Amino acid sequence: MLRVDEVDLQLRITALADTTPREISALSSELRSILERSHGVEHVVPLRVAAPDGAKGVFVDALGGLAVSVAPVFIKTLLQTLQSVLSRQPAATKVLIETKHSKFAFEFDPKKTSLQELVAAAERLSAVPSSV
How many other C-beta atoms can be found within 10 angstroms of the C-beta atom of residue 6? Predict the structure, then answer.
């Protein structure tokens, strides 16, 4: 159950250049494992999407997708964790982070993406709309 002091996020990690689906799967599994043990993270589950035609079942886990509920003050920590996991990747990776009220997409290049860019993203994601 979502408490008032939590933010629901959808993280989608996708391949750029020559990153393989296997690498994306390993990255999202590692990130999920770390986030499950992180203070301030209420829950982390695979992001579910509609199954392709002909597949068994209605929904399947999205490759590289996670649904996360986190306290707003821990969004920066979540992004630092994401940076730490992705920085071990040799190739650039695309990340899309969505909340109910905002969306932020960036290409994470371990040689170019700075912590300051992630901090700015955290500030945008944790901003609460005045109409709520």
Answer: 18
